[in-house]
Give the backbone structure.
Amino acid sequence: MREKVLYALGIAAILLMAYNLRAIAALPLDPPLGPAAIIMPPVAKLVFFYYAAGGVAIAAGIASAIAGLRFLRTRDFRYDALAVASTEVGLVFLAIHIVTGCLGTRTVYGPSWAWEPRLTTALACGLLYATYLMLRSAVEEPAQRARFAAVWSVFIFLNLPMLAVAINWWRANNRRTLFWRGGSDYIAAWLPSILGTMLAMILLGVLLTAVRMRQEETRRELDTLRRMTHAL
Amino acid sequence: MRFFHQVWVVAAKDLRAELRTKEAINSSLAFALVILLMFSFAFDPLADTTREMSGGLLWIVFAFAGTLVLNRSFARELPNDCLDGLIAAPISGAALFLGKACANFLLVLGVQLVSLPVFGVFYSVPWTRQFPELLVVLGLGTWGMTVVGTVSSALTVNIRLRELMLPMLTYPILFPALLGAMELTAELVNGNPIAPDKLGFLKLMIGFDVIYTAVSLALVETILVS
Amino acid sequence: MTAVTYGFIAAWAILVGYVLTLVNRERYLKRELTGVKAMLESGQASSKAAPAPPD
């Protein structure tokens, strides 16, 4: 039953992604991109992956924090599996976010890493979640590992808003944001494609998280069997 | 009041144990001076540009030296099963944590206050001009570092790569507080009062301290009790 | 056009890389699982043959 849901999810994600890619490729670039856009087409089309991946990474971070809190409340190991799965998937999409951002920065500003606030915040968040994964791999006993990871995910989640604020106030960062000046002055015609790509990526993320969660269950089953073997 | 009495007892015990041997503070102080010297090799200490950013360098020195003290915090309790004894004692985990945090805070602050004049001499900055404000920023930043470091020390006490994991866990969480502290100290150490547009960093540091102290007090029981 | 192509290729490469690590881990876990299950069977068989040790 579960397999069928996963397959259906995968197919839905692929179809949605193909539809969106066609729509993105067909978007006309000739009309001016509006007063807020500071980029030159055609690198503009990269923005879909940039924003979508960023959105999925944020969703994964929230899922990880909520899963950690639920684990502390209920001690149910499925929440622990959800926490680690969503953190890993979030890191993958954060990597996509940073890489596309670097390519955008290189085209717009020149250097690959222009200390743009959003990219710098993304990098710092990535390092934070990497420490989470390192902590998990350093603790051997499963119950202790789950407890420590849950506590640490709360610490990390509380840090994120402070990190965003601090980096935005930092004097050395390049105040110009990538792809659009200031806030979100999106072009109305592009909004459906942005949301569509984000939806496709979220489906993909959910699929990867589910697969990873199943692997975590397999690993726990393995640990239990191993313990039984050693007891004999 | 019982809670604060317990905190006081734990803090006094830690301070007494540390001051008897002074091993952590001595190595921390030596490390701080060594890094200060190395930074003088890396950046020309008498140039004006270096003087402007020396506040940032100072906090890197403090962060690295502080880790040595924080590492010893829970690791000191490992021989003779002292840690199990402390956890089994009728004090709450929060009191144990706060007592250790206070002791660590005083130790790290002591190391900082001794290395501050050395820093002033090396980089010839007028650090005494805004000393009360500088002390406030030092206190706020050090408290944030101590709280996060003591929690990390409790997390990593039984992990095999403890010496490596503690800095890796502590520093990324400290990014906002360190950023604020570096910006403010860079101004203050050169004798300039804090500019109004940098006051936000002060609020950020206070918020960081309050939030992380509250969260640590709430969650440290989960970490210590197995 | 090249920056966009590089971006797409990079994004998909990262995703594919992660899927590959998942697949590898799945294969490793399955192998371990069958090995431990076999050890369990043989262990149970041998302990049934030998007399139960005193507690």
About this structure: The mean pLDDT of chain C is 78. Residues 2-49 of chain C form the longest helix (48 residues). Chain C has one helix and no strands.
